[in-house]
Amino acid sequence: MAGLELLSDQGYRLDGRKATELRKVQARTSVFAQADGSAYLEQGNTKALAVVYGPHETRGSRSKSLHDRAVINCQFSMATFSTAERKRRPHGDRKSSEMSLHLKQTFEAAVLTELYPRSQIDIYVKILQADGGNYSACVNAATLALVDAGIPMRDYVCACTAGFVEDTPLADLCHAEESGGGTSLALALLPRSGNIALLQMDARLHQDHLDALIEAAMTACKGLSKVLDDVVRQHLEEVSVLTRD
Amino acid sequence: MSPMKLCVPGERLCSTEDCIPGTGTYLRHGYIFASLAGYVLRKNEGEELPVISVVRETETQLLPDVGAIVTCKVTSINPRFAKVHILYVGSTPLKDRFRGTIRREDVRATEKDKVETHKSFRPGDIVLAKVISLGDVQSNYLLTTAENELGVVVAHSEAGAQMVPISWCEMQCPRTHAKEFRKVARVQPEYLQA
């Protein structure tokens, strides 16, 4: 590919990071008072907002409720101003529907849904600025929002992307790296147990490189889980200081 | 007060040999893990092992369970059943209203077939009921008032005044002295205001 060098000879990427370096992650929980749980997360330039409602009685068609567990309803959308060119269809298009389904699958693995039969948990995620790693930012923001809502979960769900350039795995891809045409792997992980909730890969990759790529993504996810952990603990301490007399 | 330990979802608290898992925890491979972000509470229940649970500052949604006494408001009646909105579970208010049904045969324990719903409940009445079933996919919670302590606790007469109970099946309006039929709950004397 002409021009853009995803990894320079000195080992630096387009934005000056090293191959295994993550982007700066900043997050805040309880950003909305009216929702049961909410969180705002920034991963580099990608900004995601997640809101959780529930568990509550199944609204709409009653037949969607399950008799022994809760239904997780996810909706993913991107703001019209989130991409370089104004997005024509923020939600309802195929990519958003697929992303919503992936989010649903991811959180069904982590949330203890058996405790809430016949009810529904709604997770709404919106991308305010898209700069690569949309799915990962959504998953991380939604995890924080679920913890904020007090919905029981087995573990955090941390997600990260990884790519491969010239035998070197890259962690946490930005938009330029994702759209460069190379491999892009998205991994959602439950860090303490090491269980994978979702694994998705675009483009082709030689089988020999797969292990290294998954390993790089898992390490990145574990690093991310520490950041999310700090955010949650800090918020808990703040809340308890306010309510403790 | 000694500072309580904070925990996050997925944190391993102890093994099943030391404690019994309570709310906010789950079991995996013989160990107890936290499932909520909050404070770890160890309580000695008097049995062999203490119960370990995780509590949050604000309570999450409580779901009505089978056998729970709930406070509900009647929304509509029909010869076969009465539809209600469940407002409280025990003494905890619910953030969201759940829908429930009191069937004609569950209104009282005796002479079930002679029950007339319009003589037992009216829309707007506050009723104490017990959950008998979570219902199947299509239906709401099934409730019963077939006990002396269950039934209508607050009702307004057609004149608009709050009625006073006279017997288990009648209430009287203090303003017009008209009697109306309801399935009245026998509230324990200590809960009634003098």
From TrEMBL, chain A:
InterPro entries this protein is in? ExoRNase_PH_dom1, ExoRNase_PH_dom2, ExoRNase_PH_dom2_sf, PNPase/RNase_PH_dom_sf, Ribosomal_Su5_D2-typ_SF, RNase_PH
Q: Name one GO cellular component term.
A: nucleolus
GO annotation, biological process: nuclear mRNA surveillance; poly(A)-dependent snoRNA 3'-end processing; rRNA catabolic process; rRNA processing; U4 snRNA 3'-end processing
User: GO terms for molecular function, please?
Assistant: RNA binding
**Cellular compartment(s):** Cytoplasm; Nucleus, Nucleolus; Nucleus, Nucleoplasm
Q: What is its main location?
A: cytoplasm
* Keywords, in A-Z order: Acetylation, Cytoplasm, Exosome, Nucleus, RNA-binding, rRNA processing
Q: Name one Pfam family in it.
A: RNase_PH_C
Where the record annotates domain Exoribonuclease phosphorolytic, the positions are 21-152, 155-219
What SUPFAM superfamilies would the database entry show?
Ribonuclease PH domain 2-like, Ribosomal protein S5 domain 2-like
- Source organism's superkingdom? Eukaryota
User: Which protein family is named in the record?
Assistant: Belongs to the RNase PH family.
Stored PANTHER family:
EXOSOME COMPLEX COMPONENT (PTHR11953), EXOSOME COMPLEX COMPONENT RRP41 (PTHR11953:SF0)
Tell me how this protein assembles: Component of the RNA exosome core complex (Exo-9), composed of EXOSC1, EXOSC2, EXOSC3, EXOSC4, EXOSC5, EXOSC6, EXOSC7, EXOSC8 and EXOSC9; within the complex interacts with EXOSC2, EXOSC7 and EXOSC9. The catalytically inactive RNA exosome core complex (Exo-9) associates with the catalytic subunit EXOSC10/RRP6. Exo-9 may associate with DIS3 to form the nucleolar exosome complex, or DIS3L to form the cytoplasmic exosome complex.
This one is known as Exosome complex component RRP41
The encoding gene:
exosc4
From TrEMBL, chain B:
Key word S-adenosyl-L-methionine present = no
Question: Cellular component terms, GO, for this chain's entry?
Answer: cytoplasm; nuclear exosome (RNase complex); nucleolus
> What molecular functions are annotated in GO for this chain?
RNA binding
**Keyword match rRNA processing:** yes
**Which SMART domains does this one have?**
S1 (SM00316)
* Keywords per UniProt: Cytoplasm, Exosome, Nucleus, Phosphoprotein, RNA-binding, rRNA processing
Q: Per the database record, which ranges form the S1 motif domain?
A: 65-146
* InterPro entries in alphabetical order: Csl4, EXOSC1_C, Exosome_cplx_N_dom, NA-bd_OB-fold, S1_domain
GO BP term, example? rRNA processing
Q: Name one Pfam family in it.
A: ECR1_N
Query: What domain of life does the native source organism fall in?
Result: Eukaryota
Where it sits in the cell: the answer is: Cytoplasm; Nucleus, Nucleolus
The residues forming a coiled coil are none
Q: Which family does it belong to?
A: Belongs to the CSL4 family.
Q: How does it assemble?
A: Component of the RNA exosome core complex (Exo-9), composed of EXOSC1, EXOSC2, EXOSC3, EXOSC4, EXOSC5, EXOSC6, EXOSC7, EXOSC8 and EXOSC9; within the complex interacts with EXOSC6. The catalytically inactive RNA exosome core complex (Exo-9) associates with the catalytic subunit EXOSC10/RRP6. Exo-9 may associate with DIS3 to form the nucleolar exosome complex, or DIS3L to form the cytoplasmic exosome complex. Exo-9 is formed by a hexameric base ring consisting of the heterodimers EXOSC4-EXOSC9, EXOSC5-EXOSC8 and EXOSC6-EXOSC7, and a cap ring consisting of EXOSC1, EXOSC2 and EXOSC3.
The record's section on NCBIfam families has: PRK09521.1
Know the name of this protein?
Answer: Exosome complex component CSL4
